[in-house]
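# nightly structure sweep
# worker-07 picked up a monomer target from the shared queue
# config: single-sequence mode, recycle default, output format = structure tokens
# input follows
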Amino acid sequence: MSSLKISGGRLANTDTVTTVLIRDGYIAALGEAASRESADNEFDAGGCIVSPGFVDLCCNLREPGNGQKGNIASESLAAAHGGFTTVCASPETSPVNDSGAVTNLILDVAARRSAVRILPVGAITRGLEGDLLSDMAGLAAAGCVALGNGARPVRNARVLRRCMAYARTFGLTVMFSPENQALAADGYAHDGLVASRLGLLGIPEVAETAAIMEMLLLAEETGVRLHLSQLSCARSVEMLADARKRGISVTADVAMHQLLFTEDALSGFDSRYHVRPPLRSEKDRQALLAGVRDGVIDAVTSQHQPHDSAAKQAPMAATEPGLATIESTLSMGLLLVERGELGSVDLIRALTTGPAAVLGRSADLREGAVADLCVFDPEASWRPGDTNLCSVGRHVPLPGKDLPGVVRLTLCDGQQAWPGNNL
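# output follows
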């Protein structure tokens, strides 16, 4: 049996300095009982916070794919660098994860090359085209934890209803990023003052809220477990709260960059901030933050989208949406904590127990639990750059800036995922 003692760290969301003993992949003891035990290795966590490993509900790993935008090995190591121990892999791969064969391929590669736990999300329609239902039962049997359509809309309401009804019969959770394609059209920025001033094509808020209303009504009828992914509007948060009061089984998440940035980030025509859904107004940002603080929004995700450099080097309309965020998600959250806009308890909950509950899992620091841990120093800082990023994507949210929060140790199943060298 291998064992590790983590000493001197503060448990997340408490002021308690304690010791954690890990043996054979599980938390064997906490506190004084752990201090009395001997271990093969010891890690000094003085000044650090010991948290459950972070759980990401939306991450693009780019494998299977052509590899130039990343792969499971590179992006899972980036996840470990960011403190994540469990990552839901988007079905937007090439080929699309719409069959058990592709799911098995992802899990096989992950078993050999991933630094963290990979949970595939299967495509709810074939090829993510929104027309024909995928083999949902086969995807679930192969190991998919949920079904979704990635960032692509299901254009046909009849197909959407059939998807939900079929998923309900198998007890599967469906994850959708709500967008009405007709209303979004060719837009790529928030339909607001900045887009008007710069001459950018806008996506109105109603493109999201109309899709949410349709999904909520269909979820209410079918009884499916619905997860709304990457909310961006104040009205969306209100609709989510109202739906829960009506007893609809619905959860939701928001991308961390939506909590930190607004449409103003596009003022310099910086294609880095071309994301989907788009960065919206300050009013929307404040409502999203309130949703996280109140627990209406269950989870904060990275919405990690690694791209090669060419994908962002074009006029904004021609660039590909997305930020490479998984290594800086914690740091962005700590910036919000420093500003007083988000409590540290709310941040840790939205990165751990909140997303874990969406998946029907737990993320606890307790005796007997799987040793998925993140040890980070909230007072230390780092500056993202080519020398210290693991992801293929270099289009990070805050390049060249000192960011708070350095991950010192990430353990997944008791095995060291970050740093890459063993203790």
